[in-house]
């Protein structure tokens, strides 16, 4: 399950422009600020891999990173900018939905959810949409290091509440993993999980 090398391959602004080889891929999705760039960098142990997708003009693109020349991590645009114009949000959803519904090499969506806050409507909507459309997915809870000392509710309670709230939209409950890019929690588990889903 080791990551030896990661190469940025391309940014695509339409699903049909994505790489056309048959390598398996995992799509990372989540609210802006959920910790997606940190998680990608922590997975691949490089500081700057996910920076590409943060450059102006690249945030609305599908970014493919090739790992060990054999599988892809795909960085998708973050959702939920509170002040995004309604039209931009519409574009995001048709664009991203098209990707999920048509991408045959998609092994699993890794839906990132911030465990340091109570369940957010936009995350629940996203999880429910993916569940209803039978898109294979894994919940990746981020910022689980905020477990101790934080004010208010604990991440484990937030995680439990989230799973309760989406239950009825899933025939089988998706796998879920707790992570922290600060402490390294969940890195090995997530890499192992992805290698098991790829069958190697
Ligand atoms: P992105 O917008 O989803 O790419 O989020 P970033 O990776 O840029 O992270 C957003 C903010 O959350 C930054 O201030 C990070 O330092 C912080 N952050 C990201 N991951 C973690 C984590 O695992 N634990 C804690 N405590 N903070 C995190």
Automatic annotation (TrEMBL):
One of its GO terms (molecular function) is metal ion binding. Keywords: GTP-binding, Magnesium, Metal-binding, Nucleotide-binding. Its cofactor is Mg(2+). Residues 22-200 form the EngB-type G domain. Belongs to the TRAFAC class TrmE-Era-EngA-EngB-Septin-like GTPase superfamily. EngB GTPase family. This is GTP-binding protein At2g22870. It comes from Sesamum indicum (Oriental sesame). The gene is LOC105158581. The chain holds residues 98 to 297 of 301 of the full protein.
């Amino acid at each position: 399950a080791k990551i030896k090398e990661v190469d940025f391959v391309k940014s695509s602004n339409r699903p049909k422009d994505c790489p056309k080889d048959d390598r398996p891929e995992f799509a990372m999705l989540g609210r802006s600020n959920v910790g997606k760039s940190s998680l990608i960098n922590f997975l691949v142990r490089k500081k700057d891999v996910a920076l590409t997708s943060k450059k102006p003009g690249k945030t609305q693109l599908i970014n493919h990173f090739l790992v060990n020349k054999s599988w892809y991590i795909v960085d998708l645009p973050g959702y939920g900018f509170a002040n995004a114009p309604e039209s931009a949000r519409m574009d995001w959803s048709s664009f991203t939905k098209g990707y999920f519904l048509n991408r045959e090499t998609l092994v699993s969506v890794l839906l990132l959810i911030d465990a340091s806050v109570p369940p957010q409507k936009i995350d629940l909507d996203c999880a429910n949409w993916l569940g209803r459309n039978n898109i294979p997915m894994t919940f990746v809870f981020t910022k689980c290091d905020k477990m101790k000392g934080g004010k208010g509710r604990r991440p484990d309670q937030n995680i439990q509440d989230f799973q309760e709230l989406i239950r009825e939209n899933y025939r089988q409950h998706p796998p879920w993993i707790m992570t922290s890019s600060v402490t390294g929690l969940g890195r090995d588990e997530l890499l192992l999980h992805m290698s098991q889903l790829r069958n190697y």
